[in-house]
């Protein structure tokens, strides 16, 4: 009899453990859709956060780009103004000195002084 009661007791314990495992499995099965929902929600939140970060960084980049391009355009305008000033200065200098330079050049070209070259040897 003792062995029968022990066998029955083991059987009851096995049934109890099986019921506990089934309930635990049902809990996990019921929790799985919730877990998937939480994972989906976390993924959506992460994507939204990434989009916000991307937009913020894009705005910062656009601001820096506009500052850089603005300074480049002002540098180009400044260089062009310097070039115009330099051209005006050279044009004025040409106007003042052109006549004197031409007179000197023509004087040097037209003043002929006949001389015998240093390497000339007279053949008598």
Automatic annotation (TrEMBL):
UniProt entry tagged with the keyword Glycoprotein: no
Keywords noted in UniProt: Hydrogen ion transport, Ion transport, Transport
Bias kind Basic residues: ranges: 27-40
InterPro entries noted in UniProt: V-ATPase_G
GO MF, any single term: proton-transporting ATPase activity, rotational mechanism
Regions of compositional bias (Low complexity) in chain numbering: 68-82
One Gene Ontology CC term in the entry: vacuolar proton-transporting V-type ATPase, V1 domain
Gene Ontology biological-process entries: synaptic vesicle lumen acidification
UniProt record similarity statement: Belongs to the V-ATPase G subunit family.
Name of the featured protein: V-type proton ATPase subunit G
Species: Pipistrellus kuhlii
């Amino acid at each position: 009899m003792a062995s029968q009661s022990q066998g029955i007791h083991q059987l009851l314990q096995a049934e109890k453990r099986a019921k506990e495992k089934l309930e635990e499995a049902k809990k996990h099965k019921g929790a799985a859709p919730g877990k998937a929902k939480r994972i989906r929600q976390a993924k959506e939140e992460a994507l939204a956060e990434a989009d916000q970060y991307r937009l913020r960084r894009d705005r910062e980049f656009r601001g820096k780009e506009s500052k850089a391009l603005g300074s480049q355009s002002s540098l180009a305008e400044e260089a062009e103004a310097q070039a115009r000033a330099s051209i005006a200065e050279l044009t004025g200098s040409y106007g003042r000195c052109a006549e004197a330079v031409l007179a000197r050049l023509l004087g040097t070209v037209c003043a002929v002084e006949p001389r015998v070259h240093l390497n000339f040897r007279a053949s008598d």
